[in-house]
TrEMBL record:
Gene3D superfamilies, A to Z: 3.40.1350.10
The entry's keywords: Hydrolase, Nuclease
Region described as Disordered: 14-33
InterPro entries: Restrct_endonuc-II-like, tRNA_endonuc-like_dom_sf, VRR_NUC
Molecular functions (GO terms): hydrolase activity, acting on ester bonds; nuclease activity; nucleic acid binding
Cofactor list: Mg(2+)
Name of the featured protein: VRR-NUC domain-containing protein
Pfam families named in the record: VRR_NUC
Domain VRR-NUC positions: 44-123
SMART domains, A to Z: VRR_NUC
Originating organism: Spirosoma telluris
Amino acid sequence: MSQLPAFRELQNFIGEQTARKPHRTEPKPETANQLTQRIVKHVRANGGYATRQQSTGTYRDDLKKYVPSQQRAGMPDVFCIVEGRAVLVEIKAGKDKLSAVQKQTIADLERAGAWVYIAHTFEGFQEWFTAQFLTPPF
């Protein structure tokens, strides 16, 4: 009987070591895909036109291979028309940074009169969009 307390102590120790750890309390960061979808929906819900740009190329059955996209390198991820203005949104989730080509393309677009926003979070985009298009004076 003297071994029973030692066995219980060992059981408790094993239980403590193998117990489930608490789940993360903070939410997972939003992925680029989720952020893009939310921005497109937000622009559409507020009367604008928005579409995700396709830049990955297309599979051609007749050639049995992928053919590169004809889109210019560095173009932002989302194309919008809001109140007659060209608005482009580059999505940067997590630690993603603008490439040199993207920086040059954004400068070219802005020089041509387009509005470009670099979105790191939906809240940041929503605040910018509201200030630019939903807050008087327009």
